[in-house]
Specification:
The structure holds 2 protein chains of 2 kinds. Chain A is mostly helical. Helices cover 70% and strands 3% of the residues of chain A. In chain A, a hairpin with a 2-residue loop joins strand 1 and strand 2. The radius of gyration of chain A is 19 Å and the shape is globular. Classes of the chains: A mainly alpha, B mainly alpha. At the A-B interface, helix 1, helix 8, helix 9 and helix 10 of A face helix 2 and helix 3 of B.
C-alpha cells in the first residue's frame, strides 16, 4: 500500500521535473518575447510542486491537528502554485493588475479556508468549506465573466486564454469533489486513495498547463494584437518536446 | 511520437488509456468502490480538461480565423502548429482562403477590365456619334458648293474638312476636279479662238496655193511635150548603134577562130619540141650504155688472158705428173724383179699417168674455148664501136632538128599573143557598142518615164486641186463649229462673275449630290 503511493509520488516528481525542464526551455527559447510572456513565473508551478512532492514522498510535514491530518507541503504547494496558475490566465487575458492580484488573493483564500476546513470538524468545518467554495465560485466569476471582457481585445492571445480558462475551470472542479467525498470531508474514501487521486490531479493540472503555453508561446510576439498564432520574427516553431496529450 | 501527434484518435486513445490505468490502480490499491468511482470521476474531469479544452480551443481558433477570412481578410495565413486532423482542417481552410483570394483577385481584375472596356466602348460610341454629326455637317456644306458648281460656276471650291480622311479626300478631289475643269474649259476657249484665226490664215494660203497649182499644170504639159520629142530622137540613134554593134560582133567571131588555130599551132610546136628533147635524151642514154658495154667487153678480154695463163700452168703440172708416173712405173718394174710387191705400185703409177693425160687434154679444151671467146669478143667490140659512132651522128641530127622546132614554136607563140590582143580589142569594141546601145535604151526609158511622170504630175496636181477645194470647205465647217463652241462656253463662268444657268436643272443635280454624300450616319 505504502509502496504504491510512494511509487505514485515518484512518478509525480518525475512529471514535475519534465514540467520544470519545459518551463526552463520556454523561458530561454529563441524567438519568444520573454518579457511579454512572463514565462519565468511559470517555472514556479512545476518547481514548487516537484519540491513539495519530494517532501511528501519523504513523509515530511504531515500535521495532525484536531480531528484531521494536514499534509502541509501539499497546501504550501497549492498556496503558491494555484494563484500563479489562475493569475497567469488573467495575465494572458490582459486583465488589469488589480483583477489579476484580486483573483490570486481569492485563490489563496480558497486554499487557506480549505486547509482550515480539513483541520476542523462539525459545523465549523462545513462553514469553512462553504467559504472556500464561495471563493472558488468567485474564481469562476473572474474566469468566465471578467477576464473574457479583456481577452476579447487580445487578438491571438485570446485562444490561449480560453484554453487555459477551460483547462483550469474544468479540472479544478475535481478538487472539492475529492475533498468532499474523501477523508477530509464525508470520509467515504481513505486518505491514501485521496493522496493517489490528488497526485494525479496535481500532475494533470500543472504539467499540461506549461505545455499549452509552450505550444502557443508565439502569441506574445510584438504584433500579438492581430489574430495570428504564427511565429512573428523567427518563423521557427520548435517541435514540442513535452507530454503529447494535447 | 510523430504518429501520435499526427492523429487525433491516437491522442484520445492515449488519454483514455492513461485515465483507465489510473482508475484501475486506485481501485486495486484502495479496494473500495467509492475510491474507484471518485478516481473515475476525477480521471474523466482531468481527461476532459485536456482533450476537450484543447480541441475546443483549436476549433474556436479556426472559427475565428475562418470568420476573419469570411470578413474579407484574405491576406493572413490560417496557421497552426497542430499536425493532426484538426491541423489539416487549418490547412484546408488556408487552401480555401488562398483559392478565394486568387478567385477574388481574378474577379476584381476582370471587373476592372470590364469597366475599362465599357468606358472605352462609351467613349467610342460618343466619338462615333460626334463623327456622324461632323460627317453630316461637312457633307451638307460640300453639297451646297457642288450644287453651285453644277449650276455652272466653275470657280466654286469646297472648304476642305480636316480630321476626316475620307471627307478630306472627297473635298480635295472635288477641288482638283473643278480646277482641272476650269483649266480645261479655258483651254478649249482659247483653242477655239485660235482655231478661227488659224483657219482664216489657212484660207488665204489655199487661195495662193490654188493659183500655183494651175501654173504647175501648164508647165507639166510643156515638159511632157519636150520629153516626147527627145525620145524619138534617141530611138533613131539607138537603131544605128545596134547595126554597128552587130558588125563588131562578127569581127570578133572571126578573130576568135584565128586565135583558136594559132593556139593549136602553138600547142603542136610545143609538143614537137618536147618529143625532140626526149629523143636526144634517149640517144645520149644509148651512147652511155654502149660505152659501158665496151668497157665490160674489154674487161672480159683481160679475164680470158688470165685464164689462158692458168691453163698453161695446169698443162705444165700435168706434164710433170706424167713424168713422175713414168718414173714410178720404171721403179715398179724394178721392184717387181726384186719381189712381189712391185705389181701394186705399177698399177698406181699407171693410174696417175692416165689422170695426168686427162688433165692435159681438158686444159687443151679450155684453151681452145677461150680462144673462141676472144675472137667473139673482138667482133663484138668492133660492132659496138660502129654503133656508137652512128648514135653520135644521130644525136647531132636530133639536136639540130630541135633547134629548128624551137624557133617555130617561138614564132607561133608570138602569133598567138597577137591574135589574142586583136580578139580582146574586138571584144572590147563590141562590148562598148553594146553598152552604148544599152545606155541609149536606158535613156529612152528615162525619157519615157519622164514623160509619164510629167503626165502623172499633171494628174496629181489636178487631184490636189480637188483636195484643196475639199479643205477649203472643211475649214469653213471648222470655223462654224468653233463659233458654236465659243457660244456654248459662255454658259460657264470661269471668271467668278456668275454664269447663266442653262441646260438641266442645277438645283435638282445638287439635291442628288446631297442625297448621295450626306446619307444617314
Amino acid at each position: 500500500m505504502l509502496s504504491a503511493i510512494t511509487m505514485a509520488y515518484v512518478l509525480a516528481v518525475v512529471a514535475f521535473a519534465a514540467g520544470v525542464g519545459l518551463a526552463v526551455r520556454l523561458a530561454t527559447a529563441d524567438g519568444v518575447d520573454e518579457s511579454r510572456g512572463a514565462f519565468w513565473y511559470l517555472l514556479l508551478i512545476p518547481g514548487v510542486a516537484g519540491v513539495a512532492y519530494v517532501a511528501i514522498a519523504l513523509g515530511i510535514g504531515s500535521v495532525s491537528l484536531g480531528t484531521g491530518t494536514l499534509v502541509v507541503p501539499r497546501y504550501v504547494d497549492w498556496l503558491v502554485t494555484t494563484p500563479v496558475l489562475v493569475g497567469y490566465v488573467g495575465y494572458v487575458a490582459g486583465a488589469p493588475r488589480r483583477w489579476v492580484v484580486g483573483v490570486m488573493v481569492a485563490d489563496a483564500m480558497m486554499i487557506l479556508t480549505g486547509a482550515g476546513a480539513t483541520l476542523l470538524a462539525g459545523p465549523a468545518k462545513w462553514s469553512l468549506f462553504a467559504v472556500s467554495a464561495c471563493f472558488h465560485i468567485s474564481l469562476f466569476g473572474a474566469l468566465y465573466v471578467v477576464f473574457p471582457r479583456y481577452a476579447r481585445q487580445q487578438g491571438k492571445r485570446h485562444a490561449l486564454f480560453e484554453l487555459l480558462q477551460n483547462h483550469v475551470g474544468l479540472l479544478w472542479l475535481a478538487y472539492p469533489l475529492v475533498w468532499l467525498v474523501g477523508a477530509p470531508g464525508l470520509g467515504y474514501v481513505s486518505a491514501a486513495s485521496v493522496s493517489l487521486i490528488v497526485a494525479y490531479l496535481d500532475v494533470v493540472a500543472k504539467v499540461p498547463y506549461i505545455y499549452f503555453v509552450w505550444k502557443r508561446r508565439f502569441v506574445f510576439d510584438a504584433d500579438a494584437s492581430v489574430l495570428d498564432t504564427r511565429p512573428g520574427r523567427t518563423g521557427a516553431a520548435a517541435a514540442p518536446g513535452g507530454p503529447a496529450d494535447d | 511520437m510523430g504518429a501520435l501527434s499526427d492523429r487525433y484518435g491516437a491522442k484520445l486513445t492515449l488519454g483514455y488509456a492513461v485515465t483507465a490505468v489510473f482508475v484501475a490502480v486506485v481501485g486495486v490499491v484502495a479496494g473500495t468502490v467509492e475510491a474507484t468511482v471518485l478516481a473515475a470521476a476525477s480521471g474523466l474531469l482531468a481527461l476532459g480538461s485536456i482533450t476537450g479544452t484543447a480541441t475546443l480551443a483549436a476549433i474556436k481558433e479556426i472559427e475565428q480565423q475562418t470568420i476573419a477570412v469570411a470578413d474579407g481578410d484574405l491576406d493572413r495565413e490560417v496557421w497552426t502548429t497542430r499536425t493532426d486532423e484538426l491541423g489539416r482542417v487549418y490547412g484546408a481552410v488556408d487552401e480555401m482562403r488562398r483559392s478565394l483570394a486568387d478567385r477574388i483577385g481574378e474577379l476584381e481584375t476582370a471587373q476592372d477590365e470590364a469597366e475599362a472596356a465599357r468606358e472605352q466602348a462609351e467613349a467610342a460610341r460618343r466619338e462615333a456619334a460626334e463623327q456622324a454629326d461632323d460627317y453630316q455637317r461637312i457633307a451638307e456644306r460640300y453639297a451646297g458648293t457642288m450644287q453651285r458648281a453644277a449650276a455652272g460656276d466653275t470657280t466654286q471650291r469646297v472648304d476642305v474638312a480636316e480630321g476626316y480622311p475620307a471627307l478630306k479626300t472627297i473635298g480635295e478631289e472635288f477641288n482638283t476636279t473643278m480646277a482641272d475643269l476650269s483649266a480645261a474649259l479655258g483651254e478649249v476657249e482659247s483653242f477655239a479662238t485660235q482655231a478661227r484665226g488659224d483657219i482664216d490664215q489657212a484660207r488665204q494660203g489655199t487661195t495662193e496655193l490654188q493659183s500655183t497649182v494651175e501654173e504647175t499644170v501648164d508647165r507639166a504639159d510643156i515638159i511632157s511635150e519636150l520629153a516626147r520629142e527627145q525620145r524619138s530622137r534617141i530611138e533613131a540613134a539607138s537603131t544605128d548603134l545596134d547595126d554597128l554593134s552587130a558588125t563588131a560582133e562578127e569581127v570578133a567571131a572571126t578573130v576568135d577562130t584565128v586565135a583558136e588555130k594559132s593556139t593549136t599551132a602553138a600547142g603542136a610546136s610545143e609538143s614537137a619540141r618536147e618529143s625532140g628533147r626526149e629523143a636526144i635524151e634517149e640517144l645520149e642514154a644509148v651512147q652511155r650504155e654502149i660505152e659501158e658495154a665496151v668497157a665490160k667487153v674489154e674487161t672480159l678480154t683481160d679475164s680470158t688472158e688470165e685464164i689462158t695463163e692458168i691453163v698453161d700452168i695446169i698443162r705444165g703440172v700435168a706434164e710433170e705428173t706424167n713424168m713422175l708416173a713414168l718414173n714410178a712405173s720404171i721403179e715398179a718394174a724394178r721392184a717387181g724383179d726384186d719381189g712381189g710387191s712391185g705389181d701394186g705400185f705399177a698399177v698406181v703409177a699407171e693410174e696417175v699417168k692416165q689422170l695426168a693425160g686427162e688433165t692435159q687434154s681438158r686444159a687443151d679444151d679450155i684453151a681452145e674455148m677461150i680462144e673462141e671467146v676472144r675472137a667473139d669478143t673482138d667482133a663484138a667490140v668492133e660492132s659496138i664501136r660502129s654503133t656508137e659512132e652512128r648514135v653520135v651522128a644521130g644525136t647531132e641530127t636530133a639536136k639540130s632538128v630541135l633547134t629548128n622546132i624551137e624557133s617555130i614554136a617561138d614564132s607561133v607563140e608570138e602569133i598567138d599573143i597577137g591574135v589574142a590582143e586583136i580578139n580582146d580589142a574586138t571584144a572590147t569594141q563590141a562590148e562598148a557598142a553594146q553598152a552604148t546601145a544599152g545606155a541609149l535604151d536606158d535613156i529612152t526609158d528615162t525619157s519615157r518615164s519622164a514623160e509619164d511622170t510629167a503626165t502623172d504630175i499633171r494628174e496629181r496636181v489636178s487631184h490636189q486641186q480637188t483636195v484643196l477645194d475639199d479643205i477649203t470647205e472643211a475649214m469653213s465647217t471648222v470655223d462654224t463649229t468653233s463659233e458654236e463652241l465659243l457660244a456654248g462656253l459662255d454658259r460657264f463662268d470661269t471668271d467668278g462673275d456668275g454664269g447663266d444657268v442653262g441646260g438641266r436643272s442645277a438645283s435638282e443635280a445638287g439635291r442628288q449630290v446631297a442625297a448621295t454624300d450626306g446619307g444617314e450616319p
